């Protein structure tokens, strides 16, 4: 009948912002799974990190599915989201960034299958973040969830560049068309 339940048992319309955010997060996990498969075929060592990210996205979903306005203490204990995964992403970003040449121009999603798939993940991640921010602002989700998605999009960008470099694939540079 167009309604679904949150983890707290609250019934909300399927078009509710919570279910939009959950859907975007699920789509992100699926995109990361695809990028992980492409990357695994190329022997990239970061595939385990992508699997860990997918597991963290399950925790993101649990937090989103537990609106703070209707959550009881028992719910909050099971679905809290700490800052630790955010800090881990920042370490990963620093580690890969140190190995990359500095950016001197805008790059287009490119650089081989692994890289292009990771760029797609980044775009999906940004959409998920845009869905989550209003929930955080409304006091319905933990601010660390939005921080995680924000840092995750940066991680995916750096990882896309790293994959292209490791595979020896050229990243396409933005060139302003002459009109």
UniProtKB/TrEMBL annotation:
Belongs to the Cob(I)alamin adenosyltransferase family. Homotrimer. It catalyses: cob(I)alamin-[corrinoid adenosyltransferase] + ATP = apo-[corrinoid adenosyltransferase] + adenosylcob(III)alamin + triphosphate. Pfam families: Cob_adeno_trans. The keyword S-adenosyl-L-methionine does not apply. Converts cob(I)alamin to adenosylcobalamin (adenosylcob(III)alamin), a coenzyme for methylmalonyl-CoA mutase, therefore participates in the final step of the vitamin B12 conversion. Generates adenosylcobalamin (AdoCbl) and directly delivers the cofactor to MUT in a transfer that is stimulated by ATP-binding to MMAB and gated by MMAA. The keyword Transferase applies. Keywords: ATP-binding, Nucleotide-binding, Transferase. Residues 1-163 form the Cobalamin adenosyltransferase-like domain. It comes from the Eukaryota. GO terms for biological process: cobalamin metabolic process. GO terms for molecular function: ATP binding; corrinoid adenosyltransferase activity. Transmembrane segments: none annotated. SUPFAM superfamilies: Cobalamin adenosyltransferase-like (SSF89028). Gene3D superfamilies: Cobalamin adenosyltransferase-like (1.20.1200.10). This is Corrinoid adenosyltransferase MMAB. It comes from Climacteris rufus (rufous treecreeper). The gene is Mmab. PANTHER family: CORRINOID ADENOSYLTRANSFERASE (PTHR12213), CORRINOID ADENOSYLTRANSFERASE MMAB (PTHR12213:SF0). InterPro entries: CblAdoTrfase-like, CblAdoTrfase-like_sf, PduO-typ.
């Amino acid at each position: 009948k167009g309604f679904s339940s949150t983890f707290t048992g609250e019934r909300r319309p399927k078009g509710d912002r919570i279910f939009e955010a959950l859907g975007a997060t699920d789509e992100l996990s699926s995109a990361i799974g695809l990028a992980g498969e492409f990357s695994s075929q190329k022997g990239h060592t970061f595939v385990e990190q992508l699997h860990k990210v997918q597991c963290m996205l399950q925790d993101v979903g649990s937090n989103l599915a537990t609106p703070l306005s209707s959550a009881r203490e028992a719910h909050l204990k099971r679905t809290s989201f700490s800052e630790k995964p955010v800090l881990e992403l920042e370490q990963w970003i620093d580690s890969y960034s140190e190995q990359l040449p500095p950016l001197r121009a805008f790059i287009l999603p490119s650089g081989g299958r692994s890289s292009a798939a990771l760029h797609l993940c980044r775009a999906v991640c940004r959409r998920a973040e845009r869905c989550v921010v209003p929930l955080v602002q409304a006091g319905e989700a933990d601010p660390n969830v939005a921080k995680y998605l924000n840092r995750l999009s940066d991680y995916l960008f750096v990882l896309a560049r790293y994959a292209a470099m490791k595979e020896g694939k050229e990243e396409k540079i933005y060139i302003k068309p002459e009109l």
